[in-house]
Amino acid sequence: MPGAKRFSRIDQLLSGLGYGSRKDIDIGLKRGLVTVEGLDDPRSEMRVDPKLVRFNGEELDNPDGLLVILNKPAGYVCSHSEREGATVYELLPERWNLRSPKIETIGRLDKDTTGLILLTDQHELVHFLTSPKNHVPKVYEATVEGPLDARSIEIFASGKLLLSGEDKPCLPAKLEIVREGLARVTIQEGRYHQVRRMLGAIGAPVLALKRIQFGQLNLEGIAEGSYRTITPRLESIR
Q: Who contacts 82 (Cβ-Cβ below 8 Å, separation ≥6)?
């Protein structure tokens, strides 16, 4: 499963966690900023247990990998390119954006969609959780314009709904009518603007969209624009 190796070179470990370049780490060791329990004179090339390393007297920041649940506000893009506008990565601590491997979103939410987005530096998780063959459900609440009825529910569940410009129908999805103008949609894929396009295809264009659940994870206790970290394991999500 994803996670840091038990023993790593001190300079590789700390530079990979965003604490600076290898040169910065070497300087930090010489100045006593980086310490290792049980070692009087730690050096850059030494392989150590990350749990024993301290930076400025503090334990390392998520040395076994990051998995973040972020409650995304509207107006933020799931991209590293600032040319596209404000990015979700701006809502995270600066050091996390210096980590290697780089933090990526697990799937995307478009700029106007709000709610639960997962971010991780564990790329095995990205591959597994975005593959439709692994059947990880994602739940959305959609404010819609236009009627929804029992026939709409049947169309979503049929596995025959074909989106414009595509030749493969969507997998069966669950549509719940919460009340007039509000629907809850559960899908197991991640096609481009899928929920918006599915609802638009049955004559119920989306006015607002929020993802409220990914696997077993939800937004409980996470304010808009805020986040929390969890153990980066599949068992935490499925």
A: none
* Residue showing tokens 């481009």: 192
Cα dihedral sign, 76-121-48-230: positive
Three-state DSSP at 28 gives: helix
Cα→Cα distances 94→18, 22, 32, Å = 9, 18, 23
Q: Are 138 and 129 in contact (CB under 8 A)?
A: no
Q: Which residues are catalytic?
A: 110
Q: Are 114 and 122 in contact (CB under 8 A)?
A: no
Name, in order, each residue with C-beta under 8 angstroms of 115's C-beta and a sequence gap of 6 or more. 71, 72, 109, 140, 141, 209, 210, 211, 212, 219
Its pTM surpasses 0.85: yes
- Is residue 204 within 8 A of residue 183, CB to CB? The reply is yes
* CA-wise closest residue to 177 among 209, 206, 153: 153
Q: Residues 172-205: pLDDT tens digits?
A: 999 999 999 999 999 999 999 999 999 999 999 9
Helix (H) / strand (E) element for 105: namely strand 104-105
Domains of the chain: 8-59 (3.10.290), 67-131+219-236 (3.30.70.580), 137-214 (3.30.70.1560)
